């Protein structure tokens, strides 16, 4: 038996709801602190731009104990995802646990264990805190000469997350900075909403994945299975895995070159002058984007103009580029992403958690042995974030209660962290993005580790072919969790 804890979950997005449910289900007393007025995180309506939808199919972007509605399309809209999250919170009785409009300003260590969590309302003590506020906390901002004059002349400069009213672009000249999926989504939406002109300004072309390869094969069947995951060198590989990887290296190389050729033809990248220089396998991590439907056709027919460069400044009615181009503009939409970090962490904790190169020291991408009573949910970003957040939340409960099948020592955890960071820096440099907090494309390897730690008796599907060639199955992971040893709490 272990003692019931007062648990604070920071954030009420996908990962915060997973953590709240996992701790509540085990019997702990949970409080969720959410800085906005609504749940959902990036899927909250006030943060969602028009046309947003998931990059992952609905059967992957879900909790283990709640499927998305059957009537949802394969790639649900932002509004549908938010409705799913609200329904989940209601069904699991999580809504009464959430304190909205409550911003965490600081954490400090409490004598005897646990943390003080400070908000505008005061300071409250908790036995355990899980941070589920996301890898990226605040909008990136860019300052250029002439911004005030541009605005004074009637122009608008907005972060892409602030573009929530499609009527804003109708009949107006729009310039979009960035080349992420949010940038291409906004570009396509602006065309659809009747913008007078749409220009996207980007630094470098990147590989994008279509919803269907060659218009036929769902991308999840090619990139989301153990077979494709096995093409990448994983962490802590066995000698057998290393040998197989070495022997198949020429075939793997040929596979990626064939995929590049397919995408080049499917999107017309060579004719557009937008074929990326870097190998596609180097970009298959959390930053990999799906191709917004309609984006490449709109480039081909001129409805969207693309210029390689960046913004250098503004004048009334004009955006000035680094190339010297002067673009007539009424609206500049900056799809420049978000700042990475957890601003309310004290400096002494941040020094233990973050390496000089920005890599996070987190065992299983969730905890640091030198920072007790603190965990992270959702910092194991992936192509199936709802599933991976759900699984790490369930792992975290058992870790906090000292009930993992093998509860690792501090030295064991630090050893794993050191080896994992060395692997990210040398073997798989592409995985360094997100501060090392990305489990993609290693979904199965990461989830295998979590299940083994929890003592799951079953960790794979009974059909070996399905296990190798099919994507992760949330229902299967629910059945694996059912084989994890149960335990109770002292009242």
| Sheet of most strands | 5 strands, parallel
Task: Output the number of helix runs.
Answer: 16
Helix content: 25-40%
What number is the mean pLDDT?
A: 93
The count of DSSP E runs of length 2 or more, i.e. the number of strands, is 24
Cα end-to-end separation = 10 Å
Broad structural category: alpha/beta
Strand order of the largest sheet: 4-3-2-8-23
Low-confidence stretches: none
Taken from the alpha-carbon principal axes, the silhouette is globular
* Multimeric state: single chain
- Strand fraction: 15-25%
Which secondary structure elements does this structure contain, and how are they paired or packed?
Elements: E1 2-3, E2 6-10, H1 14-26, E3 29-33, H2 78-91, E4 98-99, E5 106-109, E6 115-119, E7 122-126, E8 128-131, E9 136-139, H3 147-152, E10 156-159, E11 173-177, H4 181-192, E12 197-202, E13 208-209, E14 212-213, E15 217-218, H5 220-223, H6 226-229, H7 239-247, H8 249-267, H9 269-272, E16 289-290, H10 295-300, E17 305-308, E18 311-315, E19 318-321, E20 326-328, E21 331-334, E22 338-340, H11 347-353, E23 374-376, H12 385-400, H13 410-426, H14 443-454, H15 464-469, H16 474-481, E24 489-490
Parallel strand pairs: 1-24, 2-3, 2-8, 3-4, 8-23, 10-21, 11-12, 11-21, 12-17, 13-16
Antiparallel strand pairs: 5-6, 6-7, 9-22, 14-15, 18-19, 19-20
Helix pairs in contact: 1-12, 12-14
């Amino acid at each position: 038996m272990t003692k019931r804890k007062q648990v604070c979950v920071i954030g009420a997005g996908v990962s915060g709801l997973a953590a709240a449910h996992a701790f509540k289900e085990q019997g702990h007393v949970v409080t969720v602190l959410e800085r906005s007025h609504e749940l959902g995180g990036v899927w909250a309506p006030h943060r969602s731009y028009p046309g947003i939808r998931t990059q992952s199919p609905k059967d992957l972007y879900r909790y283990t104990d709640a499927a998305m509605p059957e009537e949802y399309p394969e790639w649900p809209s932002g509004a549908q995802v938010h409705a799913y999250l609200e329904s989940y919170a209601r069904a699991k009785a999580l809504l009464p646990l959430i304190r909205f409009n409550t911003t965490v300003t600081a954490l400090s260590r409490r004598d005897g264990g646990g943390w003080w969590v400070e908000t505008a309302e005061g300071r409250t003590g908790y036995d355990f805190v899980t941070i589920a506020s996301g890898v990226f906390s605040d909008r990136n901002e860019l300052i250029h000469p002439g911004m005030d004059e541009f605005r004074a002349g009637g122009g608008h400069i907005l972060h892409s997350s602030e573009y929530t009213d499609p009527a804003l672009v109708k009949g107006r000249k729009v310039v979009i900075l960035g080349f992420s999926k949010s940038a291409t989504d906004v570009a396509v939406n602006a065309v659809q909403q009747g913008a007078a002109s749409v220009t996207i300004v980007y630094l470098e072309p990147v590989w994008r994945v279509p919803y269907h390869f060659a218009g036929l094969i769902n991308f999840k069947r090619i990139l989301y299975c153990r077979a494709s995951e096995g093409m990448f060198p994983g962490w802590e590989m066995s000698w057998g895995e290393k040998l197989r990887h070495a022997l198949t290296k020429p075939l793997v190389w040929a596979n990626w070159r064939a995929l590049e050729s397919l995408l080049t033809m499917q999107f017309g990248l060579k004719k557009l002058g937008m074929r990326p220089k870097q190998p596609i396998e180097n970009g298959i991590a959390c930053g990999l984007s799906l191709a917004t439907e309609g984006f490449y056709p709109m480039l081909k027919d001129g409805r969207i103009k693309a210029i390689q460069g960046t913004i250098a400044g503004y004048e009334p009615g004009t955006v000035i580029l680094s190339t010297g181009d002067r673009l007539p503009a009424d609206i500049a939409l900056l799809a420049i992403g978000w700042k990475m970090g957890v601003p309310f962490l004290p400096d002494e904790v941040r020094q233990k958690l973050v390496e000089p190169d920005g890599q996070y020291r987190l065992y299983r991408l969730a905890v640091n042995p030198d920072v007790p009573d603190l965990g992270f949910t959702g910092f194991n970003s992936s192509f199936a974030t709802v599933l991976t957040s759900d699984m790490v939340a369930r792992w975290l409960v058992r870790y906090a209660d000292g009930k993992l099948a093998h509860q690792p020592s501090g030295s064991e955890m630090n050893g794993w962290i050191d080896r994992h960071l060395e692997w990210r820096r040398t073997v798989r440099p592409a995985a360094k993005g997100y501060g090392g907090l990305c489990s993609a494309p290693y979904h199965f390897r990461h989830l295998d580790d979590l299940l083994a730690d929890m003592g799951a008796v079953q960790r794979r599907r009974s059909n070996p072919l399905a296990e190798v060639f099919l994507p992760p199955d949330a229902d299967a992971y629910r059945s694996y969790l059912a084989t994890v040893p149960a335990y109770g709490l002292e009242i």
